[in-house]
Predict the 3D structure of the following.
Amino acid sequence: MTKLENPVLMATIGGAQGIRGEVRAKAYTADPTALGDYGHLHSMDGRSFEILEIREMKNVVVVRFRGINDRNAAEALNGLELYIERDNLPDDELEEDEFFYADLEGLEALDDKGVSYGTITGVFDFGAGDLLELKGPGKRPVLIPFSEASVLEIDLEGGTILIDPLAAGLVEDPEDISGLASGKPKKKK
């Protein structure tokens, strides 16, 4: 049983595929077939899964795990979320202005005046572009577009992102804010 200190969601298992123990899975990696490149995957209940085979099929990957040898065992995994330890992600392969979405969670969203709009609690892609979920104390979560217009700068070391609240849809009146820059979200050096 493995307990992850800083888990990063990599995939969610869907239904069984065939009778040999294969499963369909939604991979949350840039290259879905690279899911096996990160080593063993882990469930939150402490189980570890080694990928033996992986192939693409439409919008999912079909995966065969060691020890899952029949349809019944595969069906028992339906809905299971699989994680890796954050330290297993290859930081050295990132460009200067790149980052992992998992690193955005917990960052505070500030405007150019230092006003906080909450903390990032999730990053979602529902098909029309990425969204950041912000949650402030005593407030309901809100979704803002993760776009060049809305997110002006990302400071991972400082634990903040600089946002344009007007472009993000958090304020309606441009007179409520001033001095906002435009441009591509940049990773602060």
